[in-house]
Design goal:
6 helices; 13% strand; 118 residues; 3-stranded antiparallel beta sheet; 3 strands; Arc Repressor Mutant, subunit A
C-alpha cells in the first residue's frame, strides 16, 4: 500500500522560504492556513502563550482553566485544535493530559513571517 506524502501545517511551514523571500504556492498557502486560523482565535493564542510560559513549559487544563471564563471541555477543545495543527505536543498522565509547545513549530512559524514587516 502506497503512503501519500501529506504534510501537516507545521511541516509545510518548515519547508517554506520566508514570505518576503519567495511567494507561497497555492498548495502551501492552503496547507498553512489552518495553522494561522488556529492562532487567529484569541483564546487559542492565549492558551499557546500560557502553556509556553507555564512552569516547566507544560500545563494541563486544570492549570489553565482559571485564566478563562470557559468550561473545561471548551478549553480542551481549543488545546486539541492547537495540537492537531502541530503547535502543541501532549502526553497523558493518569486522567490529565499535559500540553507542551513544540519549539520547532513556533520557530519555523517565526521564520516564515520574518522579514515581512521590515
Amino acid at each position: 500500500m502506497s503512503k501519500s506524502l501529506t504534510l501537516t501545517p507545521v511541516e509545510t511551514v518548515a519547508c517554506c522560504s520566508p514570505l518576503a523571500q519567495e511567494p507561497l504556492s497555492a498548495d502551501q498557502a492552503e496547507r498553512i492556513s489552518p495553522l494561522l486560523k488556529a492562532l487567529g482565535d484569541p483564546v487559542r493564542l492565549r492558551l499557546l502563550s500560557l502553556v509556553a510560559s507555564h512552569a516547566d513549559g507544560e500545563a494541563c487544563v486544570c492549570d489553565l482553566q482559571d485564566a478563562f471564563d470557559l468550561s473545561q471541555p471548551t478549553i480542551s477543545h481549543h488545546l486539541k485544535v492547537l495540537h492537531e495543527v502541530g503547535l502543541l505536543d501532549r502526553s497523558k498522565r493518569g486522567v490529565w493530559v499535559y500540553y507542551r509547545v513544540v519549539p520547532t513549530a513556533v520557530a519555523d512559524l517565526g521564520a516564515l513571517i520574518a522579514g515581512v514587516a521590515g
